[in-house]
Amino acid sequence: MEKKDEDGKQIIRRLDAIIHLLVKQQLSRDNESARNTIVGLYSAGLKDSEIASILGRSRGYVASEVSKCSKKVKNNE
Question: Which of 12, 15, 38, 63 is deepest in the core (most CB within 10 A)?
Answer without folding.
Answer: 38
